[in-house]
Amino acid sequence: QVRLADSGGGLVQAGGSLRLSCAASGRTFSSYAMGWFRQAPGQEREFVAAIRWKDTNTKYTDSVKGRFTISRDNAKNTMYLQMNSLKPEDTAVYYCAATNSASYSDLTQQYYYAYWGQGTQVTVSS
């Protein structure tokens, strides 16, 4: 059983930065990929970024490219999302998730993610 604990959200002004963390436990993750999704009020949950554990290949949604960086620390079994130049439209609950069934092209699809964190709120004020 995989357990994910995400943290690091908060309130920040536009242009500021936050770093989200997702601590994973319960399995070794060499065959997994992990990702971040977000859900704003009244909207559907959407893909933000993903990383493959074994080779650190990454994928981002267009709206965060150049501002967000996903990474992982193998020794700590922890994934991070460094968010810079935050905008009010980044306000959402952010969820980390893990999959061992998605191909690289499928990493944007939440259907493939079997394990989810509890979510952490990110609020960006204008």
Task: Give an account of the 3D structure.
By secondary structure, this protein is mainly β. Helix content is 0%, strand content 49%. The mean pLDDT is 94.
Task: Write the SSE topology.
Layout: E1 3-7, E2 10-13, E3 18-25, E4 33-39, E5 46-52, E6 58-60, E7 68-73, E8 78-83, E9 92-99, E10 115-116, E11 120-125
Parallel strand pairs: 2-11
Antiparallel strand pairs: 1-3, 3-8, 4-5, 4-9, 5-6, 7-8, 9-10, 9-11
From the structure above, extract its key features.
126 residues, globular, single chain, 49% strand
Shape: globular
Proportion of residues in helical segments? under 10%
List SSEs in N-to-C order: EEEEEEEEEEE
Radius of gyration: 13 Å
Q: How would you characterize the largest beta sheet?
A: 7 strands, mixed
How far apart are the termini? 40 Å
The unreliable regions are none
Count of individual beta strands: 11
Count up the helices. Answer: 0
The mean pLDDT is 94
Which structural class fits the helix and strand makeup? mainly beta
Percent range for β-strand residues: over 45%
How would you concisely characterize the structure shown here?
With 126 residues, the protein is mostly beta strands.
